[in-house]
Amino acid sequence: MLRRLSVFCALFALAVQGIYAQTGTLKGKVVDKANGEAIPFANVVIERNGVQSGGATTDFDGMFTIKPIDPGKYTVKASYVGYQQVQVDGVLINSDKITDLTIELSSGVDLDVVEFVKYKDPVFKKDETVVQKTVTREDFDKMPTRSAVTAAATSAGAYQSSEGSAINVRGQRSDGTVYYVDGVKVRGSNVSLPQRGIEQVSTMLGGVPAQYGDAVGGIINITTRGPSSIVTGGVEGVTSEFLDGYGYNLVGGSITGPIWTVKDSVDPSKNRTVAGFFISAEAAYIKDGTPSAVGNWKVKDDVLKNLEEEPLRKHTSGSGTLKNAEFLTMDDLENVKAKMNVASKEYRAQGKFDVKPSGNTTISLGGSFDYDNRHNYFFPYSLLNYGKNAQQITTEGRAYARFTQKFDSDTGSAIQNAFYFIQVDYSNSHQTTWDEVHKKDVFDYGYVGKFETHKTNTYNTYGTDPVSGYTGWMHDGFRDTLVEFTRSELNPLIANYTSQYYSFFDEPAGRYENLSQILQGNAMLNGMRPDNVYSLWYMTGRLNNGYSFSDNSQFRLTASGSADIGDHAIQLGFEYEQRTERFYTLVANSLWTLARQLTNFHIANLDASNPQPVFDAWDVFQDTINYPRLYDANAQAYVDKNIRTKLGLPLNSTQWIDIDALDPEFFSLDMFSADELLNDGNGYINYYGYDYLGNKQTSRPSFESFFTDKDDNGNFKREIAPFEPIYVAGYIQDKFAFKDLVFNIGLRVDRYDANQMVLADKYLMQQAKTAIEVTQFGKHPSTIGDDFVVYVNDASNPSAILGYRDGDTWYNAEGTEIADPTPIAENSSTGGIIPYLLDPNNTAVTADVFKDYEPQTNIMPRVAFSFPISDDAVFFAHYDVLTQRPTFAQRTNPISYLYIQNFTSPNLANPDLQPERTTDYEVGFKQKLSPASAISLSAFYRELRDQIQVIPVNFAYPKTYTTYGNVDFGTIKGFSVSYDLRRTGNVRLNANYTLQFADGTGSSATTGITLINDGFPNLRTLSPLSYDVRHRIVGNIDYRLPGGDDYDGPRWFGKPIFQNTGANIILNARSGEPYSAQANITQAAAFGINDRSRLAGSINGSRLPWQFRLDLRVDRSFTLKFKGGESKKKGAEMNVYAQINNLLDADNIVSVYRATGNPDDDGYLTSPTTQGIIEQQTSPQSFRDLYTIKLNNPGNYSLPRRIRLGVMIDF
Q1: Looking at 182-196, 824-838, 947-961, which range is the least confident one?
Q2: ω into residue 958 within 30 of 0, thus cis?
Q3: I need a surface site. Which of 103, 435, 605, 1128 has the fewest CB within 10 A?
Q4: Rounded to an integer, what distance in angstroms lies between the CA atom of residue 914 and that of residue 216?
Q5: Architecture of domain 14-118
Q6: Can you tell me whether residue 149 is helix, strand or coil?
Q7: Each residue of 800-826: pLDDT tens digit?
Q8: Where are the domains of the chain?
Q9: How many C-beta neighbours within 10 Å does residue 732 have?
Q10: Which of 998, 1000, 996 is nearest to 1031 (CA)?
Q11: Could you give phi then psi for residue 308, rounded to 5 degrees?
């Protein structure tokens, strides 16, 4: 006994965070079928696909418990001497749930025959304390979707804006929902797995146990399939070619079986699987994965070809050019079903390997891989420039290793069913976005061709040179006389602009004497991109402006310990997680512009101290005085030095370098310094976790090094460490019964460390003195603390104190608290706020104004209980406190702080954000209506606190800026009704309705920008959130006709024509989301237009229309029989299906123009006030036509009807 107690204590010491392995429990009783008496010491074994997953011996009361068990369907076998063995097939084990099973054994019958029983999943369980819905593999395979997230969205209270998108759970922002795959936490909401590899999808909406954290919305657990004791597999093919025009094509397959078997010690005639595997994979090519109900407009192919070859036309005045695209009309356009050049190639794989060296020990290895190669859709490109859609390549991988050990318990022992597991997992996601042709050849992006500029001296001043004493025409500068252009085929569509422009004019005068004239004529220079048409559509040839890539990884160590002590099921544990986030982006196209600006800058002036009078061959002065270029070493750019070195010129050479006459192969990114590419805050690069050239860092630089470290050339290295937050959590949980009450009580403690530096004072980016350090002005008012920041009248020569500040609270010079510090600022020498600076002569931001992030610890009690009102009804309730680490704008970016004075309206991340907090209450009632059906009613209330929202930091020094704070709050009130009908005859039905009121002060972290711009930065009023769907109805019905003797469908000519045929329908209906109506007409369909909208009514006071979607999957199964090589009959199961999403082809409206409430009209074309502006366009008719098609944005509508035909063969 003492040994077992010590083992149990060791388990508690080992235990770590919640059972993230997503396991379930089988609990039951073995009784005599004749009299119902308990059978003690009976053997119970649970198997899946022939592989034993656990076992137990019943106690004196015939009770048994087996855990942990991976979710799925199992076979349970029970046996006892003198009784017939019973095998129960199809026992469903759900994630984080207890499955109850009573097994009845018969005595005195044929003991050699096994009695087979089919398990019926009960609709009613008295001890359920978690609001949860589970979709099994059998149900998921029959649904008209391949997305596990969409399957989860059929739960009551789960809102999904469109198929495959992220889920909002009970009024929370979508980033409040957390996804797990086999216990591995998923970054974001991209859960892309082969459908054949998914065993179960479980959605937890309320009553979240203490084992789960870092989420304020819902928990979605996805469990993948496990190995089998025999080799089985399957293949699948799906296509929509010739059915809907969207080009969906997919092939997939799976295989499972044993790797290592040994003779069963109990029954030597059988083999026991020691190690097994399961592997599934999919490959897909999709022409358009997100089509629109209204199609997509494009220019006709022949018209587009002409526009690409001849983008310009000569102006009728003979001077300048016009864009040919500005004369397009509806006759030149066509509407197509699928978007152009957005095809994706996708590859997904998932595998699991289980090893059971003993009956009580399991080692699991698993993981998944997802590769996605696509071209991004960009609406303004879709008419004329879809061929230049950026390529995006994403790879994601997850891997884990889990060790589980159970401990045998003697019957009657106080400690039962003790086990623990330890899991290590690692995830990595890498994404690259670039031009498919140029990739990382950065100087190819903006290259048009070779521009060779000819220059001549200018002489605009006649006078006497004071050095030489000669009088004449004095050299005062240079003038370009001719730019010769030689086109390149690196970017032929862009080069066509310049080639055509040159072809229009024979003489360079006023046309191409210099680069400015060329640019004014709508031709392209190196580093330039074609402009737009009426601010509606981008023109042909325009490239993505550069490339970016990210690398995010996550390491987690989790484990858990569990044991039953009497009637208490106790769990406890902890989790450690560290993420590493890296990012790099480069505006490659504009590097030519930067090189042109920096090169020759140091020789822009003339050296007047070194005149060069001009003489003829006979030494006669020619009344002309020249001056060489003045070399200014301090103004010479690092890139200029590198260019001259590569050209073989001395560093102090004053030769003018014609940048545009050099080939792109001549340049490399390392010719620039970090500061040159950062460009005083108007950067060509942004990065962290990489160096400024995009190379992954091999060590972690200190925060201070960004401001101080230099390379061997004296240039700042500007190294920025990756973002590496640390999350640690622990919990304890106890599920027990007290009389008729079943309690699940837990306590969770989370600790979040952003692991970075944050501003010590958000109002100060330079060190300032506090009251205790300022004594020359006499005694401070009694209300002023020693640590209050002092504000003065002048930075360099302070002579008076104007005010004080303590955190966000301001005081005037007399120590009186004031709400507005404007008088303090207005009375200073600059009219702005001036703190008493420690070093007023040093205005640069340094690491001294930062401090370490203070780790945040959150304590979260969880209480849930249920009690039966009768044998067929149960009442349940829960109280949860949930927190989640910051998910937006939470990384320190030293670049923003370094250049804050150069920004017009700086917006900075806030690395000092705190976790968000939600308090969740729910009460509910579940009633069993029949042995196969039940109804559940529940009411829930949520309080949201500390949500992230943009805020202003007024009167900060040296500049007011905006950042993000934990200031948003909200309340969610709702009521849900769910009806569950297990298969009765041919029908299975799940349906739910949710009434919800989701109000808050902000729907996202950026919705407050409008209030700040309107002068109401502190306005916090509750209004409907943008995802507040007031009414939502979801139904899933499956109608299936069996085959063989069980067939009960219609017969034609005596044949059961519909045997093994079924149909599955998902119905989604919801009321419209809210939006804020607009009082004035603006040019909403255009971009780059500075129109100011005015609110009509209240924020989110208008609603979109109702949405309705019906998805259908019809399938039929066949048994294929054929002979093997040894004339043994073999067979396979084939399933043929048709999947139709949006069966009725409903044009659901998902967005409208705020001024009209219509999805295809913003009111601009018909407004009386805009007619004069329209008539002034290059071609009024073209403007109207192009504006009209831009109005009908495909994104304003839902997905159209999509039809797919598939075949699955399982063997």
Answers
A1: 182-196
A2: yes
A3: 1128
A4: 14
A5: Sandwich (2.60)
A6: helix
A7: 999 999 999 999 999 999 999 999 999
A8: 14-118, 767-842
A9: 17
A10: 996
A11: -70, -35
